[in-house]
Amino acid sequence: MQLSQTKIKEGLVVKAVGRLDASWADLFMEGMLQEVRAGEHHLFIDASELTYVSSAGIRSLILLQKELFTVQGWFRIIHAVGMVRQTLALAGFEQWLLEKAPGKEEPCVREAVTDKPACFNLQWDAALSARAISAWNPWNPVRMDQCRKLVVDEQSFALGIGSAADTLDQSRELFGEFMAIQGCVAMQPPDEHSRPDYLVPEKSFLPELHSIQAILCRGAMSHLLRFSPRTEQPVHSLSTLITEAMRVTEASAIGFVIAGEIEGLVGASLLRSPGRITPETSTDFPAMRDWINFCGERMFSGEQALICGTALRNEQYHPQQGALLPLAEPGLFAHLHAAVFPYQPLPNGRIELAATVRRFFNGPPPRAVLHLLNDSRPGVGLGESALLRGACWCATLSNPEVL
Amino acid sequence: MLELVNLHKTFMPGTANEVRALQGVSLTIQPGTFAVLIGSNGSGKSTLLNAVAGSFAPDAGTIRLNGCDLTRLPEHRRAARIGRVFQNPFAGTAAEMSIAENLALAMHRGKHRSLRPALTRNARTQMADRIRELKMDLENRLDNPIGTLSGGQRQALTLLMATWTRPDLLLLDEHTAALDPKSAAKVTALTQSIVQREKLTTLMVTHSMQQAVDMSDRIIMMHRGAIVQDYRDEHKQRIRIPDLMAAFDRLARRELFDESVADLLKSQYA
Predict the structure, then answer these.
(1) How far is CA A24 from CA A29, A30, A52, A59, A76, in A?
(2) With a cut of 0.85, is the ipTM above it?
(3) pLDDT tens digits, B131-169
(4) What is the CATH number of domain A2-111?
(5) Which of A171, A209, B160, B254 counts the highest number of beta carbons within 10 A?
(6) For B125, how many CA atoms within 13 A lie in the half-sphere containing its CB?
(7) Contact between chains at B268 and A136 (C-beta distance less than 8 A)
(8) Radius of gyration of chain B (CA)
(9) Tens-place pLDDT, residues A93-122
(10) Domain boundaries, given as residue ranges, for chain A
(11) What is the CA radius of gyration of chain A?
């Protein structure tokens, strides 16, 4: 099986040469999914030199159809002849068959994936207001009396350290990183064995969290950025994306949610709840290794991330006194949490934040929840997290002074 | 019940090649438990097994089996209570002796031996019956030298010999690692069958995560001569291969967690 691609105005033509049988179906599927991942959601499979299709081949086509359906995409089979045409027609898949692609099938450049980030104005005057909770100054004991209950409704997003346990007392042993967007919460239990957990709002149920540290942003997003690999910029670091979001919102303080395919994440997550820290507890190195897990390498390449956070551009900002941490770009500060999900393609163009978040949380469970870092250690630093392609919803932060 | 209390062993102490193979290992394995030891190369799994078997004396600590202190007991004295299968399929049997002669040695393990013939008609019948369970067509080849058998056949016989007299403890040291996949699967199934039927207290070393998850009641992970994870009871029930792989990843990441990371986290966390 050989696959070759030609970009046309109406989509992508993939010429399949050989047999689409059990031996080649997986390779065919991998090739087609690679195109879907690259943003090609309208596919024409040129079957002029496809000599055979078996049930295994048809199964791979059905799987491709399902994958494309989730991103409002489709495929058609063009120039099918002989046994292939007859088999597909008799099996009831005539709707896949086209004599030829519409238009002249003239090659053109893949503009959709090489263009600059696309920007959509959602609500030009929308803004976010932030609220900060701080009952824990790492690595001191938690001030339990200053913990707050947090409800992340469908108009807000939040990130921090908290627990969804029923009572504050029960939470003491369970504080871990969380991120919450539009009522959906992903959280990392603070031990080495537990998998990330999640809560999704249903009917009148809204998740509640006891939080020892959090930034909560409420309001609507004003802009949507769509980004993908470009010749001059194959990956998008978080600094780059935040800078671009500040440019389109014309703001120096923003809140944002990013959904995108991961190039590499750099982060850490708690192994023990800060609620267990007493004045006698040692959290210095090497004891610190029992309290927090550092990724050690750029992780989760090819998976999908939901990232939320707030950022500020201010040369005078003192990170020691606030909730934001320095990014790679001088003068840029942010606090970011990410939830990692197995890869699933995102639709192209303008997409809704609520639907996208639901899509993530309705799929396979998150694989990790991380506090993202800029590893700036000389020589051995892992740098900043980066994404390949995705979407960034952002808006001005009306009260950056709380950060 | 196997009880290990604060076992220490350092090889070549005080030299450039010093290896601290066991660093305070404490472990209690209840009767009838199938415990699996996993860990990277050099983590101390086999050393721990050898310490229990009596291949060497620990520098410090205590080894008790069913209440009896074995710590200073020589290896051959422990053999009466401990069955053992090695990674090398040729290590557990005497190649020049016949199948029957090897089995006769196993039948009398830990028992008083006399000058009477060991290979009686009754004994041969028993041997044939037990060997038939292996389904390897060996029951009619009792007089063949065991050295003429394949690795898989020899390992199956070694397992049979190690459990013939129902030991207080069965030690399995990567006993399927040197076999071809088909033989390994057969010996694995045989191990499960014998251990379950005889309710043997078992300690097995393996690099196979699949075996660890499928066969055991308890998974113990070792790293640098110490126990770093102990999956048991209901926690063990939910463990799958990706969980074990993730645990290995965490260990590897922990190795990369140095003072520079600690400094980074002090300035960049929360």
Answers:
(1) 9, 10, 11, 12, 19
(2) no
(3) 998 888 888 899 999 999 999 999 999 999 999 999 999
(4) 3.30.750.24
(5) A209
(6) 3
(7) no
(8) 21
(9) 999 999 887 776 666 665 544 456 789 999
(10) 2-111, 118-402
(11) 24
